[in-house]
Amino acid sequence: MLPTGIHFERYAAEARILKTRRAQIWAAALVVLLLVMPQFAGNYLLGVFTHMFITLMAVYGLFATVGMAGQINIAQSAFVGIGAFAAAKLSGYGLPVFVVVPLAAVITGLVSILFALPAARVKGFYLALTTLAAQVMFPIIILALPSSWLGGLVGMPVEPLRIAGIRLSSPTQLYYFALILVAILTVAAFNLPRSRFGRALMAVRDNDIVAEVMGIPVLKMKILAFFAGSLFAGVAGACTAYFLQFVTVDSFTLFDSVWYLGMLIVGGIHSPVGAILGVVFITAVQEGLHWGATAILHAGGAASGGMLFALTSVALGAAILIALIFEPRGLAHRWAVLRAAFQLWPFPRN
Amino acid sequence: MIKLIQILIEGALVGLVYGLVAISFVVIYRASRIINLAQGEVLVFGALFLWTFTLGLRSIGYEMPLLVAIALTIGACVAFGVGLERFVFRPLIGQPAFAIFMASIALLILLRGTAQLIWTAETRSFPVILPEGAFNLGPFLINTRLMIGGLFTVALTMALHLFFTRSRRGLRLAAVAEDHNTALSLGISVRAAIAIAWILGAIVATCGAVVLLSGRIVSLEVAHIGFKALPVALLGGLESIRGAPLAGIIIGVGEALAMTYLDPHTNGAASGILPYLVMVAVVLIRPQGLFGWKKIERL
Known about the structure:
The complex is a heterodimer of chains A (350) and B (299). Helices cover 73% and strands 3% of the residues of chain A. Chain A is an all-alpha fold and 350 residues long.
């Protein structure tokens, strides 16, 4: 919905992501705000934001696979893990970061193709099950490999992040590192629905038999959907590796995969805005509960880490169910409604 | 040779436990067309219900006979199933399969969190319901608990199979498993079907918990059995009750063999991966499983 009095004469203007001057100003303001964050935010808040950026990268990947192409993927966390282990291994060889990150992404993508191949035979729920197999097999395989390869049970240290010989390890530097990567991926995710590839994915999602009839190579598109989604996951994994400085299989569980999916559903699966809103919303809920639990603990009440985890689980589970039942289009739709009301004010909507 | 047969027997008995849990998957799918990823959590809920009504009540001073406790557990399962139908799945009737699948994933998180809130994450011992120990059958040693569980599984399979293929209500459920909208237009209550599915699913899962846990430790981690039973359900065919125990035996025996002969060479990975490799293979070669319904798609 565009504000009154704005109309376009060319298709290029119509297809732009930030259509109006006002939208550009808001986006620029957001970027500036994120850039100056470290000036006034403490290390804890920066850590939360860095973590949020990494999560957002993984959820963008799910947006490509699940939201655009309609292929359910419940192994995103395993793919993030593959990216993390690949980055840890590659950084151990002394490769520079701008080689490690893309290479980790490509390795993750190639592994994901293995689990996308069953798309040749099955679809929907059954395809989701092969990704479940990927998620369950991931820790078993990593733990069974010789520990000199990927660290086994102990885990694997990661070489600290170095750019042009300077070691970056403070929260502020890691924040900027994650910010740059998430900015690149945001551009990619927002442009995906506008591209020929993205349109093909959407056709496959809406009806794959019709897509086939229309001349879209459906199998290739399904496999590429997994590949694309895993590229995002691989970057998120590499970023996690640099952020945590140590990777173990325990950081990449089925539960995390479910959380990623949950964030996407709560936010709205059909637009990258949904990914952002979902991640921000769930992170806010998590931090709010965390803050509340700490407050109770300080007040002398009984609150344990397990309790906090349980509460967050209940909150997320309930949020997904509420989203599915009452607003399947997610927060992104609410956001669009709100924006339309704001732009049309003082005229009533419809 | 005796060792090999002993391994086969043990594998088959463990496999029947998988089969029992897989039946609880199949029952839910067969009656409501819901693939419930949260089945492991449902099993944990059943186990915790039973624990509450036996050892839990005893610890606060109320002792009650085992049969009453079991009746109360079944009552709790019924309430659980009806509650899920009313608040989660009724609003989702007619929604695409994607939404219902996602709902089961949400349920997985929600149930795990709820279980942790109500019962806390501590491990607790499970009441001894089936006899412990083992008996000799010729040269072979057989675990009594698993043997009784296996016989129970076979009996339950027969009973459920008769219910789903012979009784009027069971046949109606088949229509729901085919398609919600079709079932509705035939005048079949999808709501009732879903409620029945979840009640049966919870009760069968509780039976699975009894066989699996009797006299052992119950914790939230037990829910992992759900993901182990999923490949079994898939191999047997999601619509086939009788396929589940058979597939359970296949997976159980395969796992036992892999554990004995392959694990020493693969650092213990082979038996863990095997069920999932089978699952991927089934999905690739015969998606409907051994006895499932083959679906034909048209434009």
